Amino acid sequence: MNTYYGTKVIQAEPACSEDNGAPGFKVIYPDGYESWSPAAAFSAAYRQSGEMSFGHALEALKAGHKVARSGWNGKGMFLFLVPGSTFTVNRPPLLGIYPEGTEINYHSHIDMKTASGEVVPWLASQTDMLAEDWAVLA
Questions:
Q1: C-alpha distances in angstroms, 136 versus 51, 78, 79, 82, 133?
Q2: CA–CA gap between residue 117 and residue 45 (Å, rounded)
Q3: Distance of alpha carbon 48 from alpha carbon 34, whole angstroms
């Protein structure tokens, strides 16, 4: 038997089991499948958006979601994943490093939309990595 760890974005609401009235959650998965989960199993597997760890936020980024910390001061700030791409050198500053026409492979990375509307490369601080206030944005 192998061990698995999973992260996905779901919709859920408190609901009692139709079989025995036990407390739990009605769960709707991204593909529309609906199920019921016992409260303890649900709490062990899911965190409400706004109460997520950085690990959960990173998985959400990889799945194509935008994320932000509830504790950030700036309005409208969020992170997004920029997928890897190929760029053909045709202007500075790369033109000063590589010959024109050279194909450069850009690795995927995380960028931030700042409160002033600019986009900048982003690197997690120790505080960000240990925070438990990450949220997936709609």
A1: 10, 9, 10, 16, 10
A2: 35
A3: 18
Residue 40 scores a pLDDT above 80: yes
Is the confidence at residue 138, as pLDDT, over 80?
A: no
32: left (phi over 0), alpha (psi -120 to 50) or beta: left
Q: Kindly give, in sequence order, each residue whose CB lies less than 8 Å from that of residue 49, ignoring residues fewer than 6 positions away.
A: 135, 136
pTM, full prediction: 0.79
pLDDT in tens, 41-67: 999 888 899 999 999 999 999 999 999
Q: Please, are residues 134 and 65 in contact by the beta-carbon 8 Å criterion? A: no
Distance of CA 126 to the CA centre of its chain: 17
**pLDDT at residue 121 in the model:** 97
CB atoms within 10 A of CB 58: 19
Q: Which residues of 13-42 are buried (b: 16+ CB within 10 A; e: fewer)?
A: eeeeeeeeeeebbbbeeeeeeeebbeeeeb
